Amino acid sequence: MAFACVMLALSSSARAATAPTFTNPVIPGDHPDPTVMRDGGLFYASATSDSWAPIFPIFRSSDLVNWTQVGAVLPRAPAWATGSFWAPELVRWNGRVFAFYSATERSGPHCIGVATARRPEGPWKDGGRVLCRSIGAIDPAPVTDTDGSHWLVYRAMGPGNGLWAARFSLRILRLVGPRYPLLFPDQPWERGVVEGPTVARVGGLWYLFYAGGSCCSPPCSYSEGVARAPTLRGPYLKDPGNPLLRSGNGWKCAGHGTLVWAGNELRMLHHATRQGDRSGRRTTMLDPIAFGADGWPQIGGDGEPVEEGLSPMGALQTPSAGGFSDAFDGTSLAPGWEWPLFRPPAVRVGKGSLMLSCRGTKLAPAFVARQANAGHFTAVASIPLTGIRGTAAVGIAVHGPGSLLRALELRAGALRSVRILNGTLQVGPAVPAPPGPRPRLAITVAQNGSLSTYASGDGKTYVTVPAGPAAVGPPPTPVALTCRGTGSARFAAVSARPA
After folding, report:
1. Where are the domains of the chain?
2. Closest CA to 285 of 30, 477, 474
């Protein structure tokens, strides 16, 4: 029997050694506050979109480690909200998919809204405000109680406020009945904040996972904790070992996750920032959860995000090439393109090109953008000269942080670098564009955010263009196609590749 046990252990070790693994992040790019749900044999995820549209991208996967964007929840902001769309949570209840989310109401406070659909791919319909309080409410987490009733756990804004729960009516799409207090910040690591709740029932107990600390203001201190209770409404006891997910293993400020079952395994999809990433990109991570003999859970590897782990569904992960490429072969913008929420561009896609109309102003160019998903990359845009109308200055740019836009522009046969920030325009020296009917404009961004600009007339030989005022800046995230001034422009293709 001892021999058999040894052989079984060796066999298990051999299987583990050959089992498929995955590498974090599972959804590259800047996708904070991720949510995930299982719907039949597929998984669906979304994340904060903040001040960008379309609002709340929708990703789909069959295995939690290979994801494809398939759409978004809302094409534009609903009439009641002014922006700052974050922390969505997906759930299927009674044949409908619900996307609960946080947004800023026009009258001021933060509110919780909801959108519904028959399928996660859409189409979606906004259902308005679920909860608005004078002090604000954010971070909704849907949960079904043991009696089948539907609830939302959420964070009440304001100093010292914490996590509350209330029943949700599927008929009127509003919270009903009394609000129950669940958890408040009272530990030093929480720094006065408990938010981003997600709830699961395991072994007859309710486990309330939550984030604490500073998520976004440097230096960030975000971490993940947990509390448990005999009933959904409490009383909750915090794990004395909190925080149970913290910075380490090359990552920092991990937290604000959603739980999902993969077979018999509980996993958490959450965000974290790679150490040394000066852009502050909060990328989507997947970490395992295991329960100890004392009944308290453990996340990741010894409380730190894993860089590599066993694939939860036994699937091979397709390595991410990073970047993107688009020749505009369809009839609409592919999922992944985005634009400022309240400055939607006039765009037409067809016949292998993208037509972009300018906005008639020098300081607010029209643009569409897409994340490069790399700290050091080169982006190239192909611009047919016959597609430029009016006096348009046509360019390729990088955006952020904030409203900063740095571009290389082509106008009237001349190339110029451009920097636009807070209504101030800086333009570099003009140089002649290389001859050719379809010039290529290129930007290379270094890890520290510095920028170099190039141009080619034949797509093979590139010449350096002075980057001037655009040369120096913080690390950006999206690549943008721009049209500044009056007229319109046509783009034949664009790509971004890690450098």
Report:
1. 22-310, 324-498
2. 30
